[in-house]
Every structure is written in C-alpha cells, then in structure tokens.
Specification:
With 306 residues, the protein is mainly α. The chain has helices at residues 3-15, 23-39, 44-72, 75-89, 92-107, 111-122, 131-160, 162-177, 189-213, 216-226, 233-246, 274-305; strands at 253-256, 259-262. Helix 3 (44-72) runs antiparallel to helix 4 and helix 9 packs parallel to helix 11. The two termini are 13 Å apart.
Length: 306
C-alpha cells in the first residue's frame, strides 16, 4: 500500500518541513563535483558511467534494500522506508508557502518585499520587475516546483516505489548541477538526455492533470500550440497547460541586467496578478488531491482483485 506513506509524508513535509530546503542539492553537489573531476574525460561514455554511479546506483541499492526488508522483515519496516524517503525527496512545502507570501505582498502592493521573496526563491535577478512580472514568474515557479519537486516524484514512487522517487530527484539534481553554460562537453549530454526521458511521461501526466482540474479547453489549447516554443519542451507543456488551466497570460518579456528580453507566449486570458498567484497554488492543491484520490482507488482495486 503506497497511499498511506505518501499521505503521511506529505503531512510531515507540510507541517514539519526540512530546515534546509535544498538539502539534497547541498549534499549531492560535492558528490557530483567529485564525479565530474574523476570521470570527466570529455566523452559520452564517461558521462554514462558517472551518471550511473551518481543516479542509478543509489536508486538500485535503495530498491534492493526495500524489497529485502519487505520480504524478510515485513510491511511495517518497508512502510517506514517509504515514509522516510518521501519525506526527504518531496518538496511539498516549497511551492505553496513561498507563493502565498509573494501573493500577499502583491495584494498589498508591497512590491519591494515581493521582489526580494521571489529573488530568494528563484535565485534570479528581480530588481526591475513590476507587479505583473513578479506574479508571472511566481506562477511559473509554483507550477515548475510542484511538478519537479512533487508530482513527478509521486509518479515514479507509484511506479517503482521509494527507489523511483529517489531516482527522479537524483536525476533532476544531477541534470541541474551539470546544466551550467560552461558544461558543454559530451560528458554532460547523457545526464540531460536521461532526465528528459525520465520526465517525458510525468510531464504529460502533470499537464493532463492541470487540464482536468482547471479550464480543460484552454489548457489543452495552450499545451498543443505553445509548449513547443519553450526552450525546455517538457517544462513548456507543464507551464502552458497550467497557465491555460487558470486562465492567465504570462508576461512575454522580462528585464535582465537592464535589457528587456522577449520570451515565448504562454497562457491565455488576463495579465497575471496576486489573484492568479493564488489560483496557481489552488490548481496545484487540486492536482495533488486528484493524484491521491486516484492512487487510493488503485489501492482499493488491487485489494478487491487480490
């Protein structure tokens, strides 16, 4: 039964979040640097070896340990493993609380604090953002963090157990760690492609869920016509569907170092504001409830068929 440890882990991460939000990246970053220094010979094969050691090996070890514990010790010990792994891999508190604080400041027209909160959350330059641009980036970050930090790990947990959740999060962390502009050799290509294939189905599941719990027609239209314009096509699906689902048109230009930079069109409807930030958080909550409900139904169906 996977739904019970998932619900408990979500409750723990929401009411007792980790003090260090980026703990996995802070722990994994030195190991990723070690793999880079040790195995980077500039070839694709070296990149595969390093990725297997950094992502595949820990997931396999956890998967084997989970199965052995389940068979030799019992369900309760396996339940505890699932609970602990989900608690440390899911980022439930990371998408909503930040967005809500930014939304409150925007609602009260406190632009400077909203800029600061967004800069700390997204680690980007926000000094020249206006209210609409802050709201737009906040909505994007909310949808992105919810997918990569919660929905996709839940998907892989459902398919492969706790090893699946860890597998996805490690692959995403390594892909992010090795996605810097200076990392342009063949060594890093495999981590990017591997994460693309790992995220191919979860991104579509998240986008479909956004459409189901939101404005289905607009979400489907934006997904179909706009997602391919985004640099990251899979993330473009998630953002386009989410923007269409809540009926907001995200800003098409952002200032960066004094220069206004154009961006692909995403979404339909009105200009983003504090109400749409709140709507994005609500959309994520509805998708989470939908996923838990579906997993519960699958669990009961399995029991009835056993």
């Amino acid at each position: 039964m996977k739904v019970l440890p998932l619900i408990l882990a979500l409750l723990l991460t929401y009411y007792r979040p980790l003090i260090e939000q980026n703990w996995l990246q802070s722990i994994f970053a030195p190991y990723a640097s070690f793999l880079d220094r040790t195995f980077n010979g500039g070839t694709h094969q070296h990149g595969i070896i390093a990725w297997c050691l950094g992502v595949l090996a820990p997931a396999v070890v956890l998967g084997v340990a989970y199965v052995l514990v389940l068979l030799l010790v019992g369900y309760f010990a396996a339940f505890l493993i699932s609970l602990v792994v989900l608690y440390f891999t899911l980022r439930f508190s990371y998408f909503g609380q930040h967005a809500e604080k930014i939304g409150v400041n925007l609602k009260d027209q406190n632009i400077a604090p909203a800029r600061q909160l967004l800069a700390e959350w997204e680690n980007t330059e926000t000094d020249h953002y206006n209210a609409a641009q802050i709201a737009s980036v906040c909505i994007e970050t909310t949808l992105k963090r919810a997918h990569q930090g919660m929905f996709a790990p839940i998907f892989w947990f459902t398919v492969l157990g706790p090893a699946g959740a860890l597998f996805y999060r490690l692959a995403h962390t390594l892909q992010t760690q090795w996605a810097q502009p200076t990392h342009n050799s063949s060594f890093y290509n495999f981590s990017q492609r591997a994460f693309y294939y790992l995220d191919w189905l979860p991104a579509r599941v998240t986008a479909a869920c956004f459409a189901v719990v939101g404005d289905f027609e607009d979400a489907a239209y934006c997904w179909r016509t706009q997602s391919f314009q985004w640099p990251d096509k899979l993330l473009g699906m998630v953002l386009a569907s989410g923007a269409g689902a809540i009926g907001v048109k995200l800003v098409e230009a952002l200032p960066y170092r004094g220069v206004l930079q154009a961006r692909p069109e995403l979404g339909l409807g009105d200009e983003p504001d504090a109400d749409y930030v709140k709507a994005a958080v609500g959309l994520v909550w509805r998708v989470l409830l939908l996923m838990i409900g579906l997993l519960t139904l699958l669990t009961f169906a399995h029991w009835l068929g056993a």
